[in-house]
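Hey, can you fold this one?
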Amino acid sequence: MTSVKAVMIEAPGGPEAMRLVARPLGQPGEGQILIRHKAIGLNFIDVYQRSGAYKLALPAALGMEAAGIVEAVGPGVGHLKPGDRAAYAAQPPGAYAEARVMPAAQVCPLPEAISFEEGAAMMLKGLTVNYLFRRTVPLKAGDTVLFHAAAGGVGLIACQWARAEGIRLIGTAGSAEKCALALAHGATHAIDYRREDFVARFGGVYEHSAWVAERAFDLELGPAHNCAAGIHSALSRVFRSASPAERLGVLRAHPDLAGKLAVAKRLTAESTSEQASAGLDALTDAERSRFEELNTAYVTKHGFPFIIAVKDHDKAGILKHFQARLANATASEFDTACKQVERIARLRLEEMI
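Sure. Predicted structure:
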């Protein structure tokens, strides 16, 4: 009996538990084939089995996926013959070997158009898509599916499969580049979930102006932005580089201080908390009347509401600044209001992070 080189473990462990050994290689019996490997696939299940997370009878061979040439077939095997190119992803483990004898039922012919490397790398992933598209929920043309990790090995096969069968696949991925890859392989739409998460969390830092967070994320943030100061720097950079009309839109998105929205309890949670911190939620009738007069006069003159980081002031201080800034030229007041918007953003971020 000949032998081949194979990877075995005698006890669970890390990579150091693997041993290259000489393993006997017999001839195929009923329903078996002998296949000589040209490429071997690596999968997470191999790690689980090696580490002991998935129990194996020891000593154990490793590896679930490979491609190669059929050298011999046993009785009862009709779909393969010696010389055939073949691939598999199946039990029992043992793919980490030069050659092996194994059940033929789980081994597929490998077309000439698919390389051994591709065959060994894609069988398990392709079978996963088959399981999802054919067995979990049988899909048909016109169906819509949401597919996570659409730019991964399984995901890219799913994208191509969906396109070939007229299935509308909405994929999620972790970057703009990965989204582009999914779209190139057949996804109908792609969602950058990291961008969506970032915008969902920081989109309200600039009042009702999620576009600031969207553009900040597109700056390709790094470790320096993993803090309030870093996020504020990125958001401020976007805000400052925006057009005057865009910045004016941000100013106009801010509510009047102690105005109608506050009375109607229609402020954002952030604005509600901020105004309450300065006592603007508990005004006397005379105070509320004075704020309303100032709000009307300020907006009439400047075209946007009075904006101030109320957490930096008490009620009396806010009224003092309100009256003083009402007299400013609009161009100067626009700059002041923009700086206050940035200050409000910084205070919000410091509470969030």
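Residues 206-352 form a domain with the UraD-like fold (CATH 1.10.3330.10). Let me know if you want another pass with a different chain boundary.
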